[in-house]
Write a structure and sequence with these properties.
The chain has 17 helices and 46 strands. The protein has 851 residues and is α+β, with helices and mostly antiparallel strands. The longest helix is centred in the middle third of the chain and has 21 residues. The two termini are 46 Å apart. The relative contact order is 0.12.
Length: 851
């Protein structure tokens, strides 16, 4: 690594003028309020304000910001309302991308617009022209009416209704009809739609015509924007204080400190944000790595302990298919635990964290992290299936995928396990084994996920059954982590930076976007991801990209007067995404990290803190971080000038050679660093792109096979399910119930005609929860002829939907001719993340294919 790395760059000996490094001397460069920090056609960031068209956010002082920003969604409500109906809340009325459309004429406040009656499955598309510059009035109501009689007739005649896509809805499973759409208050989250009563249509008179009334543009206005303000109300004096010649950055530092404190729950742990009051493993972990470990190590320890099971494993939060092992990025906890240790030096914490990580990795190695292979499971943080995966992919397919971010996290976790082992016992072999495993996984990532065509890593490998296709999509968090954790060797880190796509509003989370999918992880910018990307840019001297990246952190925080969860890629606004929270924890941590990780270049190690400053030329002057605590010492850190070449370093008035603080130091100290004002290398030109959408290729065949050898029913069969399940659509005479206590071992015998490679999977149902959340993914261990061959994963397919059948992950086998026995057993490693012990699936049949 070069530039702003761990190990400060310094000018040649004797180049510094000692007189210029005294604590009282000003920096040679002085910031002007009329010299922008960043200027673009869309917005300008000044030292004391942000301007975006008619909108201005101004730092009145370090504790006061005003803003007259008004969301375009409030000012000019989209006149076209797109929507579709959903039986049982599922996306089953019209093909993907085909939506009903009605045009909403302007009217008086409180006016109700009524649509014609729409027959389920028949498209309504209004194309009535509307005068230009006419807007929907605030608080307009719309009544939508749906003719569901064809569906009800199917129930009466056949006991079921078949949707356009072949989904069979049984009358006994019918839970209602819901509406999804593209404008507030609607959204396209079909996976959780059935649980949201406010979107359910009703039939008050029983005539088969269902109705719902929606409030559109609530509280909106077509008038002039009003000025709002933020003023510091929490006492932040016990925390590090930041002062610079950029008043806007000073004020946003204090705003972010306050929001960090507001995110502390009564139990002294961190919530994820104003709308997310729970403690989430990946949210707190990524936040802790960015800045919280060195700002509030006490709360970070509490938060991390909260995310450990009673038996000492890291908790995987809710996710696709019922969480772990479909979602498998829980090792982010390890990254955070290491940062807590190097920030505090707490040996008791080191031992505790090592034990938790070791036990969790052991469990993962049986399920997602097999030796010599990429780690299985969902992209880290991108845990909303339809946002970033092909529509055809089922949760079992996502389990089989191999994703960049998750694999980089695991490589770093193995490194951390090895480093922790060496800290605890330098001669123990465990450290060497873990470090060797980390190196091997890095090699596998580079061999299987690098796209020479794109010049960066692909988001994931996917496809049935061997995950042999590489997606060419950009995934910003994974790329940033690959650079920061040195997974990208040689020229690959510069190549990633050179070829990275950039939107005017920031770095896209994924690019290209997913078509016919509203912004969230898709078609969006997430400030915390931008923060990791900025940190990676600072490490690699990409000055122009870093200037853009800093501006895209500061612009929205100032205009919105809070650290929002995400931004709409199309206009940089906070509205129009699936959901968005104020004071989102990792956005808060990312804002703070721009001072500690980028400007001051902090890197924490077991025995020291190194500072490798990186300051773009647009941010001149002195930067002071006072009351900064590291181990047993308290510091005032002074940073003068710009660039990343240190001209002189003084500790307590004495010249020193390196910007290093030893962990053994105690007491109160002042460290003064002066940069040479040599401009950062511009780096490659920022590659601006448009927020376009691009579909994945067509769905591949289920498996590349020559013939189906066997379709076998379980040897033990039942004809009715557990109470209240009553499934339909199973094959043959019945199915077998798999729970923690029932049918803990199920054996199936089969004959193989010829030797060769075979694919084995199982048809199943799991109605324990929705497709994209909860934690009731069922697991079993598979053995063939008594030899363990791997896990079988039965992900959730829909809340209380036990008639939705699908197939598990596929297992590749090499078999000899003759009789064999496949056995599914429930083993200790098959415990999922559900604290109540729900680990249930219905097993219908086993399939065996010859490759």
């Amino acid at each position: 690594m070069i530039g702003c790395t761990s190990g400060s760059r310094q000018a040649a000996p004797g180049a510094a003028n000692p007189a210029s490094t005294s604590a009282s001397s000003p920096s040679a460069a002085v910031s002007s309020s009329e010299t922008p920090l960043y200027r673009a056609a869309e917005f300008t960031v000044w030292p004391d304000r942000v301007e975006q068209g008619a909108f201005v956010a101004r730092a009145v002082s370090a504790t006061h910001i005003t803003s007259n920003y008004q969301s375009p969604a409030n000012r000019t409500f989209n006149r076209e309302l797109q929507f579709k109906f959903a039986l049982n809340g599922r996306d089953n009325e019209l093909p993907i991308g085909v939506n009903h459309s009605v045009v909403l004429f302007p009217g008086g406040a409180g006016k109700t617009v009524e649509t014609p009656v729409i027959e389920f499955g028949k498209l309504l598309k209004q194309e009535t022209p509307v005068p230009a510059d006419s807007y929907l009035e605030p608080d307009t109501r719309i009544k939508l009416r749906l003719d569901l009689r064809p569906v009800l007739a199917g129930f009466k005649a056949n006991g079921h209704f078949d949707t356009f896509n072949g989904q069979r809805i049984y009358q006994q499973d019918f839970k209602g009809v819901f509406i999804a759409g593209g404008s507030e208050p609607l959204g396209w989250d079909f996976d959780n739609l059935a649980g949201r009563a406010q979107y359910q249509l009703q039939d008050p008179d029983g005539d088969g015509i269902y109705e719902i009334e929606l409030l559109l543009n609530p509280g909106g206005t077509t008038g002039t924007a009003q000025t709002r303000e933020w003023k510091l109300t929490k006492d932040v004096s016990a925390l590090p204080q930041y002062h610079s010649e950029q008043p806007l950055v000073d004020a946003l530092w204090n705003l972010s400190l306050e929001e960090m404190l507001l995110n502390i729950r009564p139990d002294e742990t961190f919530m994820a944000g104003a709308k997310w009051d729970g403690v989430w493993t990946r949210d707190i972990s990524y936040s802790i790595v960015l800045s919280l470990a060195h700002l509030r190590p006490d709360i970070t320890m509490n938060s991390l302990r909260r995310k450990v099971t009673a038996d000492g494993r890291i908790i995987q939060d809710t996710g696709t298919g019922g969480s772990w092992p479909v979602s498998s990025d829980r090792q982010t906890w390890a990254l955070a635990a290491w940062e807590v240790y190097v920030a505090t030096g707490d040996r008791a914490w080191l031992q505790y964290a090592y034990d938790v990580i070791f036990k969790s990795i052991q469990a993962d190695e049986r399920t997602v992290a097999r030796p010599g292979e990429l780690v299985r499971g969902e992209s880290s943080f991108l845990d909303w299936r339809q946002q970033t995966y092909p529509r055809w992919m089922q949760p079992a397919d996502i389990y089989e995928s191999r994703c960049l971010g998750t694999n980089v996290v695991f490589a770093r976790a193995y490194d951390i396990l090895g480093l922790m082992a060496r800290q605890l016992n330098p001669t123990a072999p465990a450290g060497k084994v873990a470090l060797k495993t980390a190196a091997a996984l890095r090699d596998t990532i580079n061999a299987q996920l690098w796209s020479a065509e794109k010049g960066y890593y692909g988001q994931f490998r996917y496809g049935r059954p061997t995950a042999n296709q590489l997606s060419g999509r950009w995934e910003a968090l994974g790329e940033a982590l690959a650079v920061l954790y040195e997974v990208a060797p040689g020229e690959r880190a510069p190549s990633i930076i050179k070829n990275a796509p950039a939107l005017r509003w920031g770095t896209p989370t994924v690019w290209p976007g997913q078509p016919n999918t509203p912004p969230y992880h898709n078609q969006s910018v997430w400030p915390f991801v931008q923060a990791y990307w900025n940190w990676a840019l600072a490490r690699n001297e990409a000055g122009d990209a870093l200037a853009h990246g800093l501006a895209t952190i500061y612009r929205p925080a100032a205009l919105f007067l809070t650290n929002k969860e995400n931004l709409n890629a199309f206009d940089g606004d906070f509205k129009g995404t699936e959901t968005n929270s104020d004071r989102q924890l990792w956005s808060v941590a990312g804002n703070l990290a721009m001072v500690t990780r980028v400007f001051f270049g902090m890197e924490f190690r077991p025995d020291r803190l190194t500072l490798s400053p990186c300051v773009p030329a647009a941010y001149p002057g002195e930067k002071v971080l006072s009351n900064f605590r590291y181990r047993g010492a308290t510091f005032t850190l002074r940073l003068r000038g710009t660039g990343n070449v240190l001209k002189s370093i003084m500790m307590d008035g004495q010249l020193v050679k390196t910007a290093t603080i030893l962990a053994s130091l105690t007491g109160t100290h002042e460290l003064v660093m002066e940069l040479s004002n040599t401009p950062l290398p511009a780096g490659p030109a920022v590659r601006y792109v448009e927020p376009i959408a691009e579909a994945f290729g067509p769905e591949p065949g289920p498996v590349p096979v020559s013939q189906l050898i066997a379709t076998l029913e379980p040897t033990k069969q039942v004809k009715t399910g557990p109470a209240a399940l009553h499934p339909q659509g199973f094959s043959g005479n019945g199915y077998t119930i798999l729970t923690r206590t029932e049918n803990r071992a199920v054996a199936l015998k089969f004959n193989v005609p010829t030797a060769g490679r075979y694919v084995l999977d199982f048809r199943y149902a799991n109605g324990s929860g929705p497709v994209n959340t909860d934690n009731k993914c069922a697991l079993r261990s598979l053995s063939v002829d008594g030899k363990p061959v791997g896990p079988v994963v039965f992900p959730q397919r829909g809340a209380n939907d036990w008639s939705d059948w699908g197939f598990t992950n596929a297992t590749l086998l090499t078999l000899t001719p003759g009789e064999h026995t496949a056995t599914l057993t429930f083993e200790p490693q098959d415990d999922n993340m559900n604290a109540e012990g729900i680990n249930t699936a219905l097993l219908d049949q086993m399939r065996l294919y010859k490759m």
